[in-house]
Task: inverse folding
């Protein structure tokens, strides 16, 4: 059995050696054949030794001879054998051509980088083929006699012979020439491109250009080697050529990485891109070293990395495209081409694509890729980048600056009477595009009526005077009827005839700024109508005067508190603006009595404080006070009316060192004296004396009374309707506490709430109001079923908020009375919240969490900052009465509108307080306010009355 196996093996081995000998068959060479591929007709003997013995092909006579050939160079041990026959009757000349390098089938790993293949050719008969000179192939001329069959033994320099062909000499020459022309063109384009990109780099200087230039040069280098151009210029030894080819392939891969890195600005995106690029670059450049040692290994790795770079690069490009990076987007087509080139090259190298034209086609394709890359890059050189780099003119700089600052350009061509402005204005206002592009008069329709005249006037003035600048703020009406503020800054441009030909400038949306300004203005006006120092400043000055009196013992200060009698009535009868001018007149009259060292302040509504230093003795001070009283007393003419006013004056005199009196104490003393004067009927002067202090006991008394009232139903709860302005239906009620004092009658909450706060009764009071009103609401809600249930809005004192019990109180009340969600609202003033923002924020969140609505009371009177408003999530703001009631200034709608808009912007509902007249109501509705409260809709009323009101509304509805 075993023997049989060995026999079989030996037999097959013998057959194998025999087979090629028997198979050698001559290739017929017809006279008209241009090129015959011999590659498959060749028998290869690799590594057989320094000499070869073979049988020839059978000759015309059918005889097979054996010939032996010795190699010329002992190192060559491989052979190739083929036979040719000339069946015709003419002698023919042919070229045997074996190219040095073949991209086709040159392999990806350990590629064949080309070399001279044939050392010599020995024929079985006739003269030896003659080597022709060629830079890229082994070329031998053979002559075949008619009828001859010649066997050729080829001594090979390498182990394999990728291609061998038999060419008609003229055809071969033509083909070579044709390729030379093609190569010349390709080289020319590629050379020009490399040069051009290099020059661009010199001009532009951005990293993108040298990177692209490097790529272009690498391609050029590769092509010159591939085309055997260098062999022609330099005398290159065969081994060196492989080295160069490998180096060129490595350079191609490396420059592609550099390009990708530089063009896509990869260092900008993520540091890992930089690392990746640097690592691959170092790796690829390291290959140059490898190339010296073994070009084939280096070239193989370069080819593989080229593929990897292609794919990886594509992935990066796609990632950046997803981020909307426009450079990446522009590179996509180029990269797709590169990828397809890589696929083609890969197929060629592995032999899947094998024909004569792929190699030159790939060379052309490579140039095309670089060309595309070049175009992509140049686009950047000549498009956007141009202006932003290097030298720019002053005009360009200005244009850029304008673009940068985002102002809208406003240009009025006066001759054609056309205003052009960016469509930003129309966008801001929500107007139709192009509405503001046209004659200047078109703007008048959009301008605020109050701004029209100034706008027209300013434009006219500039044209008339031919100089100056326009700097004007005006309002433009937006689609929804709101106005936005703009500031126009422009300058006339004078033509050659000295006339103004156009006005050019910028337009800026200053609405935000204006709103803030108005707010500040408002605060300022409210704080000092009279321009007098306010309470704080007065206290400060008094303190300073007291300190000086103590230290120097000189001028002893006295404090006069001057309060107008029955001013409220006067105010109510003649109107607030008249009231204001009375306050001003009085301030002026008092001021006239003062000496420079004295100071007058307005302490509150109709109370003035006077720091008197010019008089020292008690009776002189009293006389001075009386002079003031008389000054105020003389009638004030207002229009055709005469108003008689009197005042009560309280005096506190600094007694000297023995009693260390503080400034607030002195003020309190003066206040008590003044109050005493009031009690005595007004129009008098009273000096403080300690006995007056006993009347302070009234406070203690009141406190006790209040305590009693809380336990004996002395406190009642009143309800004031809050209506929807759209249809005047009742949306809910504000809950207001009332105290009917057994002796003093109705005590205002402005009086007893502070007492309750000071005595701590406020918590009890608060809980009482909360509980009582919640029960009431629950009753209403079950009785009157309306689409949106009624709500109540309960005032909460700052002291209540500061205590944790409030949470429990609200929780209890809510659980006891099943109210519709969100219908119990708590009203808080800004000051409460601002005083302790951190804590308040937490409390408010918890209250919200319980389901209570939050209402910001008296909005606009405090110092609410926007950031706070955003932070505390109130769902309603209540605009203070002072904004709603007209005070003789036209500023009302502007401020109101800002506040309402602000509230809505922050997603809050807006309730306006103090609507007293029909016109208030109408205006509020027009300003976009949705809720209002005020005497117009109803005074604070008892629960029974409120119930009647609701009942009436229900009946009206069902009727
Ligand atoms: P407020 O919260 O600003 O309440 C609105 C005040 O404006 C009420 O005065 C109301 O009667 C009055 N009012 C309503 N409509 C008009 C109008 O058209 N014109 C005018 N001139 N005034 C109008 P009231 O009831 O005297 O309350 C004064 C303040 O006392 C309230 O101001 C509130 O801060 C406080 N207050 C009232 N009840 C309570 C309460 O139960 N608890 C706490 N903590 N404070 C309360
Ligand atoms: Ca309130
Ligand atoms: Ca209020």
Result:
């Amino acid at each position: 059995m075993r023997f049989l196996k060995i026999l079989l093996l030996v037999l097959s081995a013998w057959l194998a050696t025999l087979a090629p000998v028997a198979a050698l068959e001559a290739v017929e060479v017809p006279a008209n054949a241009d090129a015959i591929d011999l590659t498959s007709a060749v028998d290869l003997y690799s590594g057989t030794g320094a000499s070869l013995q073979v049988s020839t092909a059978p000759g015309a006579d059918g005889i097979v001879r054996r010939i032996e050939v010795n190699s010329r160079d002992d190192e060559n041990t491989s052979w190739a054998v083929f036979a040719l026959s000339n069946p015709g009757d003419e002698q023919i000349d042919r070229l045997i051509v074996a190219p040095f390098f073949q991209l086709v089938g040159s392999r990806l790993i350990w590629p064949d980088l080309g070399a001279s293949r044939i050392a010599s050719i020995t024929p079985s008969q006739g003269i030896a083929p003659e080597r022709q000179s060629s830079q890229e192939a082994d070329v031998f001329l053979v002559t075949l006699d008619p009828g001859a069959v010649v066997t050729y033994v080829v001594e090979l320099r390498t182990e394999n012979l990728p291609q061998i062909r038999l060419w008609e000499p003229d055809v071969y020459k033509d083909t070579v020439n044709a390729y030379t022309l093609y190569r010349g063109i390709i080289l020319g384009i590629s050379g020009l491109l490399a040069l051009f990109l290099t020059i661009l780099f010199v001009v532009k200087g951005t990293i993108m250009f040298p990177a692209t230039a490097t790529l272009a040069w690498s391609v050029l280098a590769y092509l010159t080697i591939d085309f055997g151009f260098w062999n022609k210029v330099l005398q290159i030894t065969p081994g060196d050529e492989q080295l160069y080819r490998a180096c060129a392939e490595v350079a191609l891969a490396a420059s592609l990485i550099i390009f990708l890195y530089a063009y896509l600005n990869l260092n900008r995106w993520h540091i890992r891109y930089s690392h990746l690029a640097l690592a691959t670059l170092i790796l690829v450049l390291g290959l140059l070293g490898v190339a010296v040692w073994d070009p084939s290994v280096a070239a193989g790795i370069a080819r593989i990395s080229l593929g990897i770079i292609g794919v990886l690069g594509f992935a990066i490009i796609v990632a950046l495209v997803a981020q909307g990076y426009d450079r990446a987007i522009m590179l996509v087509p180029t990269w797709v081409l590169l990828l397809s080139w890589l696929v083609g090259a890969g197929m060629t190298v592995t032999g899947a694509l094998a024909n004569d034209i792929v190699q030159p086609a790939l060379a052309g394709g490579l140039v095309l890729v670089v060309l595309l890359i070049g175009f992509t890059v140049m686009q950047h050189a000549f498009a956007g980048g141009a202006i932003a780099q290097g030298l720019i003119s002053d005009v360009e700089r200005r244009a850029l600056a304008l673009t940068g600052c985002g102002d809208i350009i406003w240009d009025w061509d006066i001759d054609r009477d056309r205003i052009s402005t960016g469509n930003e204005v129309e966008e801001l206002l929500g107007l139709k595009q192009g509405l503001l592009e046209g004659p200047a008069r078109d703007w008048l329709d959009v301008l605020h009526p109050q701004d029209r005249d100034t706008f027209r006037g300013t434009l006219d003035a500039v044209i008339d005077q031919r100089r100056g600048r326009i700097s004007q703020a005006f309002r433009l009406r937006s689609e929804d009827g709101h106005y936005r503020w703009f500031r126009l800054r422009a300058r006339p441009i004078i033509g050659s005839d000295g006339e103004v030909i156009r006005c050019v400038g910028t337009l800026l949306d200053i609405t935000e700024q204006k709103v803030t300004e108005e707010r500040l203005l408002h605060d300022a006006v409210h704080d000092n109508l009279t321009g007098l120092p306010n309470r704080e400043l007065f206290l400060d000055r008094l303190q300073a005067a007291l300190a000086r009196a103590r230290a120097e013992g000189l001028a002893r200060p006295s404090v006069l508190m001057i309060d107008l009698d029955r001013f409220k009535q006067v105010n109510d009868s003649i109107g607030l603006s008249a009231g204001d001018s009375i306050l001003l007149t009085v301030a002026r009259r008092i001021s006239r009595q003062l000496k420079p060292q004295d100071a007058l302040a307005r302490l509150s509504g109709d109370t003035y404080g006077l720091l008197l230093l010019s008089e020292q003795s008690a009776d002189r001070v009293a006389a001075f006070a009386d002079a003031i009283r008389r000054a105020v007393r003389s009638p004030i003419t207002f229009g055709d009316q005469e108003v008689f006013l009197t005042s009560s004056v309280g005096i506190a005199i600094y007694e000297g060192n023995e009693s260390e009196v503080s400034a607030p104490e002195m003020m309190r003393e003066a206040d008590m004296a003044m109050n005493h004067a009031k009690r005595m009927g007004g129009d008098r002067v009273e000096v403080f004396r300690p006995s007056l202090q006993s009347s302070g006991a009234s406070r203690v008394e009141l406190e006790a009374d209040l305590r009693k009232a809380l336990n004996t139903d002395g406190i009642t709860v009143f309800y004031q309707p809050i209506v929807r302005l759209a249809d005047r239906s009742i949306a809910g009620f504000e809950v207001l506490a009332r105290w009917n004092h057994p002796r003093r009658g109705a005590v205002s909450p402005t009086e007893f709430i502070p007492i309750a706060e000071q005595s701590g009764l406020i918590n009890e009071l608060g809980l009482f109001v909360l509980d009582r009103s919640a029960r009431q609401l629950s009753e209403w809600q079950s009785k009157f079923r309306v689409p949106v249930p009624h709500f109540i809005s309960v005032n909460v004192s700052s002291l209540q908020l500061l205590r944790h019990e409030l949470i429990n109180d609200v929780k209890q009340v809510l659980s006891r009375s099943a109210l519709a969600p969100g219908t119990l609202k708590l009203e808080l003033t800004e000051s409460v919240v601002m005083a302790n923002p951190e804590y308040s924020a937490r409390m408010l969140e918890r209250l919200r969490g319980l389901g209570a609505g939050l209402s910001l009371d008296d909005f606009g009177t405090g110092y609410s900052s926007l950031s706070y408003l955003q932070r505390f999530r109130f769902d309603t703001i209540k605009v203070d009465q002072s904004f709603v009631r007209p005070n003789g200034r036209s500023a009302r709608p502007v401020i109101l509108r800002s506040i309402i808009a602000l509230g809505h912007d922050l997603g809050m509902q807006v309730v306006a307080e103090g609507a007293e007249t029909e016109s208030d109501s109408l205006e509020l509705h027009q300003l976009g306010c949705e809720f209002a409260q005020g005497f117009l809709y109803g005074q604070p009323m008892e629960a029974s009355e409120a119930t009647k009101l609701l009942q009436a509304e229900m009946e009206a509805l069902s009727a």
